[in-house]
Design brief:
The protein is an all-beta fold. It contains no helices and 20 strands.
Length: 191
């Protein structure tokens, strides 16, 4: 089974290598790497498929791909650093991908792909992809010149009781391409 991926305050530097986060019960090939054939799934410990908190990911020309799916069923409350002041706060999300607290994701000339899917939860947030809404903003950036330099896809469905059910949800974060590449952000929300 696939399990959620949680990173808190982590620094990853691939020095031109690729980074793939996801899950699956089998394998496939991506950019010459053998990777999982599915998504990282939320579970009874953390409802988000992928959770990044104050992480710094630098690929220096390598590609980054994130595939996450929120837990199907009731949300699990997790404790995260309180970004306003000190201490901790609780988060009650079941997102495909949840970035919180000022993550930095930079691939240089590499591409960025993020896919998040959220379906059915009792209450709380169930967003496909959610970027920081409090504290420091997330920065997702590259200088790739292709027509799919940055692609973010968020889908949420079957969430009639969720407080938030957005395909793509953000407040203060930045998604940017500093060259002539194209950014695609796709959000789909169906109750």
């Amino acid at each position: 089974p696939s399990h959620d991926i949680v990173s808190q305050g982590t620094t990853i530097q691939t020095n031109g290598g690729h980074l793939w986060m996801g899950g699956g019960s089998g394998f496939t090939s991506w950019n010459g790497l053998t990777v999982g054939n599915g998504v990282a799934r939320g579970n009874i410990t953390n409802s988000n498929g992928i959770t990044l908190i104050k992480s710094n990911i630098q690929a220096s020309g390598g590609g980054i791909a994130l595939y996450g799916r929120g837990r199907t069923g009731a949300n699990v409350t997790i404790t995260i650093p309180n970004l306003v002041g000190t201490g901790t706060q609780n988060a009650n999300n079941s997102n495909g991908i949840r970035l919180h607290g000022g993550n930095q994701i930079d691939t240089g000339t590499g591409t960025i792909y993020m896919y998040g899917y959220a379906d059915y939860n009792a209450t709380g947030s169930a967003n496909g992809v959610e970027l920081s809404q409090t504290g420091e903003p997330d920065l997702i950036t590259n200088a790739n010149t292709c027509t799919q330099a940055i692609v973010v896809e968020g889908i949420t469905e079957n969430n009639p009781n969720a407080s938030n059910a957005w395909g793509f949800y953000t407040h203060y974060s930045v998604v940017q391409n500093t060259s002539n590449g194209t950014i695609h952000i796709k959000g789909k929300g169906v109750s």
